[in-house]
């Protein structure tokens, strides 16, 4: 199971695509039916889809998996009683699978048979997405739900977050204890720490400073730099998230405390709590499809 892409709907899709390609550092993949698809250097045909809409919302977050894993998912999703339906992807790479709505409206899409493309060169391109994080009214409940309904595993719990993995990467998603439901942020995996730092430099050329970072997180130990994108959402340059074994023992909030004046391992950066919070409220979840039987 791998995290592949996010599908965003928003006003000003073309401008958002221009920012992500010209400044952030993605490569255009394709424009199809008015939707802009942007890719990184890795084998996924796209990482971000930008669809023009009257107001912003997060259409879906897409994972790719084997046919066998998809069949397991159909059974566990149906058993959990979640709203879901079979789906054929019209996005680059195609594939067939299911759409699933979690308890707070988060729409996840799981595809099998989605095609990959040849990697491309580019040391300032993101390689892939490394995580997509959601705000939750009840992050604890959602952590349990994704374990039960999706076979994901909680890696760590902190005062602020429930970190969840779907493969050996410490987390591919997380649920923030926010008190409301929305997209928290999208994190791009950069080739190495230098690529993160050069990204900060590139944005600085355009008058943008990190809303938080550079720094190194506790859980996952990844390097980060968060920005508020001109088109609204919080986006992150990240690299080197930890890999964990199958039997990794999940940490509890009391295992993940910081010394005074620290909220990351380095302590070199301020965090714009208010700006980030406002940006996190922009992309809400929306299900514009009817649930249907998964025929399991
Ligand atoms: Fe992150």
TrEMBL record:
Entry keywords, A to Z: Dioxygenase, Lyase, Oxidoreductase
InterPro entries listed in its UniProt record: Glyas_Bleomycin-R_OHBP_Dase, Glyas_Fos-R_dOase_dom, VOC_core
Name of this protein: Catechol 2,3-dioxygenase-like lactoylglutathione lyase family enzyme
MF terms in GO: dioxygenase activity; lyase activity
Stored PROSITE patterns: VOC
Residue span(s) of domain VOC: 128-240
Organism: Sphingobium jiangsuense
């Amino acid at each position: 199971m791998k995290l592949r892409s996010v599908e965003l709907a928003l006003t000003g899709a073309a401008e958002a695509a221009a920012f992500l390609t010209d400044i952030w550092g993605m490569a255009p993949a394709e424009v199809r039916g008015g939707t802009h698809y942007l890719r990184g250097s890795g084998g996924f045909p796209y990482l971000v889809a930008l669809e023009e809409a009257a107001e912003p919302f997060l259409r879906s977050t897409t994972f790719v998996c084997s046919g066998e894993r998809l069949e397991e998912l159909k059974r566990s999703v149906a058993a959990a009683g979640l709203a879901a339906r079979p789906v054929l992807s019209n996005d680059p790479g195609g594939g067939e699978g299911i759409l699933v709505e979690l308890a707070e409206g988060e729409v996840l899409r799981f595809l099998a048979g989605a095609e990959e493309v040849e990697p491309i060169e580019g040391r300032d391109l993101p390689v892939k997405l490394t995580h997509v994080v959601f705000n939750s009214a009840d992050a604890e409940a959602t952590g349990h739900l994704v374990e039960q309904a999706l076979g994901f595993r909680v890696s760590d719990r902190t005062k602020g977050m429930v970190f969840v993995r779907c493969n050996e990467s410490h987390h591919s998603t997380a649920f923030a204890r926010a008190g409301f439901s929305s997209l928290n942020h999208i994190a791009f995996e950069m080739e190495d720490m230098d690529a993160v730092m050069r990204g900060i430099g590139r944005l600085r050329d355009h008058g943008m400073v990190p809303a938080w970072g550079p720094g190194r997180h506790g859980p996952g130990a990844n390097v980060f730099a968060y920005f508020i994108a001109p088109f609204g959402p919080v986006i992150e340059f990240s690299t080197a998230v930890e890999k964990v074994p199958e039997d990794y023992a999940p940490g509890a909030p009391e295992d993940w405390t910081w010394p005074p004046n620290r909220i990351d391992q380095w302590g070199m950066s301020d965090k714009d709590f208010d700006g980030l919070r406002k940006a996190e409220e922009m992309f809400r979840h929306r299900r514009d499809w009817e649930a249907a039987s998964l025929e399991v």
